Amino acid sequence: MLAGKKGRGIQKAISILVKYGKAFDAERLAPVISSHIWAIDPYEFLLDITDGVDKLGVGITTTHPLSGFFDMDKWQEMGVPDNFAKAEAKLFNKRLPIYKRLNVLQTFTCLPTLVGNSALKGQIISWMGSGVQLMANSLIGARANREGITTVLAAAITGRTPYMGLLKPEKRLAEIIVRLKGINIANCTDTDLQAVSYYIGEKAQDKNIVIDGLPNNLAFESLKSLLVPLAVSGAVGICHIAGITPEAPTIQASLGGKKVLDEIIAGKQEMLESYAKYPGQDGENVDLVVFGCPHLTVTEIGQVAALLHGRKVSSNTRLWLGSAEQIITLAGRMGFIDIIEQAGGVFARCCMAGVPFGRLPNGTKTLATNSIKAAHYISRLTRARVIYGTTQDCVESAITGVWKR
Amino acid sequence: MSKRVLKGRVVNGGSVSGKAIVINIPFSFIGDFDLSSGCLSKGHPMEGKVLAGKILVCPTGKGGTVAPYIAYEAMKKKFAPIAILCQKADPILALCAITIDIPMMDRFEGDITNLISTGDQVQVHGNTGTVIID
C-alpha cells in the first residue's frame, strides 16, 4: 500500500498511519473491524485520500452527526443563521457523493452502536468521537484509541490502524481508582451523574480509571452520563466499571495485579461544583434549550415527551433535540415525536455541542441544556451564556421562557 | 550569538527555516486558534499573534479530535505554521503536522520552549533530527 501499487489515495492514507504509528512507537499496523468517520472532511483532502479507492477496507463505516447546529432539512426550523447554513449545505452536498460512492452508512449520529455499528469484546475499531471511543472501551470491551479525524478516515480506507495505546491489553488496565463518597447512585439523576463525571475527568486527565461502588444494573443512559464527561473535562480513554466492563468482572481484574497510581474521591460537593460552573439565575430569560449531546436514546425522548405532554414551548424560546434518524423514527412510532413537535420542539441530526463551527440563532443570549458536554463546548465556541440543569428544569424553562430551579 | 545545534526526534520529516513563535502552554488548533483571522484566539495569553510562516514551538498539544481538519483549513488559507517543535508530541498535534505534512520534532534535551525565543531565526532539519538556531 505504501509503495502506491493500490493507488494514490490508499498510499496517502497508509503513509499517514505509518508516520503516526512511528511517532508513538507502534511496532505494526493492526486490522480494523469497523470505522465511524465524521463526514466533514475538507473537500480537497477527501478527494486526495479517496483517489482510486472504490471500496473501504473495513466491514462497516458509519457517520458521526452532521456538523454543529447544521441539519440540511431542519436548519430553517432551528432558526440558525442563513449564511452559516447555506455555506454548510454547499460543503455537505459537495462531499456527500464521495461518501455515498464508498458505501459509508449515513447514520449521522454520535451513538453508532445504537444504529447498527456494533463491535464485540477484543475487536479493534477506529471511531471518531471522544464519547463513543470511551463507551466502546468501557462498555463493550471493543478496543479504540482516542484519535483524530484524519487517522479514522485513513483507517476506514485501509482497514488498518497503528497497534498502540488502548489497543494493547496491558495499556487498558486501570491506573486510578475513583471512590464515590456520600452519593447514592440510585437517587441521582442523569445530570447528577454527568456532574460527578465532569469533576472526575478533570482530576483523572488522560489516565485509565476504575470507579468503585457502582451497581451493575445501571441503565445505558446512566452509564452514558457517567462516562461521556470524562473525555470532556479530561482525556480519559477507558473507565472500568466492575461487573459491566467486559474485561473487569472485579476491581482487582481492572487493575491487573498492579498498584494503583492514585485515588480520586468524588462526593456531593464535587457534583455541585460542576453544576456551579454553568449556573442559572432564577428569573432570567432562556432563549434556547438544547437536548441531545450525546444524541438522545428513545428512552430519553420518551422522558421529554412525558414532561411536555399537552404543553407548549414559550414563543420566546426554542427547543432543539438531537438524535439519530433511526431513533427518531422509532420514537415517532411510539408517539413521542408528535407530542414534542406539537409542543414546539425541533429534532435534528447534527452535533448539539456545536462542534466545530456551529452558529446559534441571532439574538441567542442564554441557553439551557441537560448536557454538561454541550455546556462545556457551546460556552467556549459561542458567545452565549450557558446554564446546565436537569432535564425537568430545562423543559420547564422551555415552557415558561424563564429559568427557575 | 553563535549558532546553537539541538538534537530531537523526528515526528514528521522535511526541512524549513523561519522565525520562531514560542507558546509556553499546550496548544490546540481548536480553541486556541481562530481560523477566520489566522490569529491566536480571544482569551489566549498570546491573543492576536499569527502562526503563518512561523515555526511553532510549544510544550505539547491537547484536546479536540477535529483539530487536524482545522490545521488543514489553516494551511489552505496560508495561516498555518511551517514546522512544529515541541517537548512531547501528543497524538492530536502530531496528527495535525502529519495531515498537513509539515516538519515536526519532539524529545529535545532540555525544554525547547526555553531553548528557543520568539523571533529567533531557526532552521529545522527534519530529516537528520537537528535544529539550528542562528
CATH superfamily of chain B: Phosphohistidine domain
- Helical proportion of chain A? 25-40%
Mean pLDDT of chain B: 94
Please tell me the total number of domains of chain B.
1
Label the CATH architecture of chain B: 3-Layer(bba) Sandwich
Main sheet attributes: strand count, strand direction, barrel closure of chain A: 5 strands, parallel
Largest interface comes to:
A-B, 25 and 24 residues
Outline the low-pLDDT stretches of chain A: none
Low-confidence stretches of chain B: none
Number of strands of chain A: 14
Alpha-beta content class of chain A: alpha/beta
Radius of gyration of chain A, in angstroms, nearest whole number: 21 Å
CATH class of the largest domain in chain A: Alpha Beta
Order of helices and strands of chain A: HEEHEHHEHHEEHEHEHEHEHEHHEEHEH
What would CATH call the class of chain B? Alpha Beta
Overall structural class of chain B, as computed from helix and strand content, comes to alpha/beta
What does this structure look like?
The complex is a heterodimer of chains A (405) and B (134). With 405 residues, chain A is an alpha/beta fold. Chain A folds into 3 domains: 161 residues, Aconitase, domain 3; 104 residues, Cobalt-precorrin-4 Transmethylase, domain 1 (3-Layer(aba) Sandwich), CATH 3.40.1010; 113 residues, 2-Layer Sandwich (Aconitase, domain 3). Chain A is built from 15 helices and 14 strands. In chain A, the strands form 4 sheets. Chain A has a 5-stranded parallel beta sheet, sandwiched between helices. Chain A has a 4-stranded parallel beta sheet with strand order 8-7-6-9. In chain A, α7 crosses α10. The longest helix of chain A is centred in the N-terminal third of the chain and has 20 residues. Chain A is globular, with a radius of gyration of 21 Å. Chain B is α/β, with parallel strands linked by helices and 134 residues long. Chain B has a single domain, classed as Glucose Oxidase, domain 1. Chain B is built from 3 helices and 10 strands; from the N terminus they run ββββββαβαβαββ. In chain B, α1 links the parallel β6 and β7. The longest helix of chain B has 10 residues. Chain B is globular and about 40 Å long. The model of chain B has no long low-confidence stretch (mean pLDDT 94). Chains A and B meet through α1 and α6 of A and α1 and α2 of B.
